[in-house]
Amino acid sequence: MDIQNSSEIERLSSTSCSNYMSSHINLLNDWALTSRPPVFINPVADKKLYSSFRSNIHTPLTSTISNPCILKTQTWVKFLLALEGRVPSYNMMTMLRRDPLKSYESQLYDLLVVPRAQFICVEIARFVGGCYGEGWRLNWLKDMGLRMFETVQTSRFTVFEKKEIENINEKKRIEEEAQRIITLNKEKEERVRKGEQLRECTTADEASSRRTVEEGVKVKIMNGIRKLKEEKFVVIDDVVPGEKCVEIEENCIKYFEEIGDRRVKSQREYRGDSVVFLNLFGASEIDVDAVKDVLANVGSCVDMPGILVPDKSQLALYDGTRPSDDGVRGYVKHLDNVGVVGEEGENFREITAIIYLNEFEGEEGVEGDEAEGGGELRCYGHTHELTVDVRPKRGRMVVFKSRELYHEVMEVRGWKRLAMSVWCLKDRRDEM
């Protein structure tokens, strides 16, 4: 695992990394211009690589890439050893800049020599964390203008260099695309600033008056949500009767069969659910009133002044019967809102509530990638080392703070997982 100062090893690894970085930077260039999310490595290997990465590397990504010492600790050795025999050809070295916004040459004596697997994992984590979203595309095009990147191999390092685009039509296309992205982002920022989502909400008290639940159920919800003061998430069972969930499940499955695939095309690399948004307070195409009643009352059970309940709720289906090569069948680790108020991606969500409409009733497989089951909500602790998997169960509700709990939906295999969600909002524009 030690990196020796061998010129031959350095030359060979530099060549390998040059090929990798060329394809990598081409993907990013393509993403900046076409809005197609980049897939950095083979999806099957990606799952194993990133899964091993997050199970062994628990420090926040910003700390990991800003502190060179972290990249040289036994933590990484443990991670790389975990990949042996599972992911091929990820033991090559590469040079990693401490500051990705500055050139390699300007940081020549401060570069990190790291195995390629580490570099790829950092890139995957950046992508999964939203670093290559619309905001990144905007900055990429705005800062670089008409100068894209190309990789150039020197005698010692493989570096990124800017290249001029000479073709007039290509320049025009890039200029138009850059302007389109700038306009879209300005419009999005303005909508957030004005709180467009907030206008589509009602107060918690008004919401609970428009939809009511039995007193016993409401007390159960209130007692459960109180625990959020000490816990990162709470699980409250039997908020909707099991027999009612069975009826709703049958109707929902038929409904999705009729309307077809509702996955978000631009997000299929990291989430696999078909979603529809239903009016929370009025009638919907499908009768899920028993679930709506509970979701509409979550806001009034939260001890948070100014909490708002949206007019829409989300119905989501993870179809684990789809072929494994037809996109992911879960949802990668994420937050439902940014951790710091006003950061890029702000959506005013404060509380997330999810109610499961069904559960896996077969025998959980214990071996093989295609063993049936899955669909658990994996909840991450403060260090990201401790995780708790919450299994879907009819009538079970999970509630957590949208800005604080990192979570993911584990791959659903061999069954169709149904759930309804609502995100309670709060106007915090005065803090932005």
Give descriptors for this structure:
432 residues; alpha+beta; Jelly Rolls; 2 domains; six-stranded antiparallel sheet; 18 strands; 36% helix; 21% strand; globular; disordered N terminus
Write a brief caption for the model.
This protein has 432 residues and is an alpha+beta fold. The chain contains eleven helices and 18 strands. The chain folds into two domains: 7-187, no CATH class; 195-431, Jelly Rolls.
Note down, in words, how this protein is organized.
This is Prolyl 4-hydroxylase alpha subunit domain-containing protein. It comes from Triparma verrucosa. InterPro entries: HIF_prolyl_hydroxylases (IPR051559), PBDC1-like_dom_sf (IPR023139), Polysacc_synth_dom (IPR021148), Pro_4_hyd_alph (IPR006620), Pro_4_hyd_alph_FE2OG_OXY (IPR044862). One of its GO terms (molecular function) is ferrous iron binding. Keywords: Dioxygenase, Oxidoreductase, Vitamin C. The chain is an alpha+beta fold. Helices cover 36% and strands 21% of the residues. It has helices spanning 7-34, 43-56, 61-66, 74-83, 116-128, 134-144, 168-194, 204-210, 215-226, 242-259, 289-296, and strands at residues 93-96, 112-115, 147-153, 158-164, 201-203, 233-236, 273-279, 308-310, 312-319, 331-334, 349-356, 373-374, 377-380, 387-390, 397-401, 407-409, 412-413, 416-425. It is globular and about 65 Å long. The chain folds into 2 domains: 7-187, no CATH class; 195-431, q2cbj1_9rhob like domain (Jelly Rolls, Sandwich). Mean pLDDT is 77; it is low at 1-6 and 151-161. Helix 2 (43-56) runs antiparallel to helix 4 and helix 2 crosses helix 5. A hairpin with a 6-residue loop joins strand 13 and strand 14. It has a 6-stranded antiparallel beta sheet.
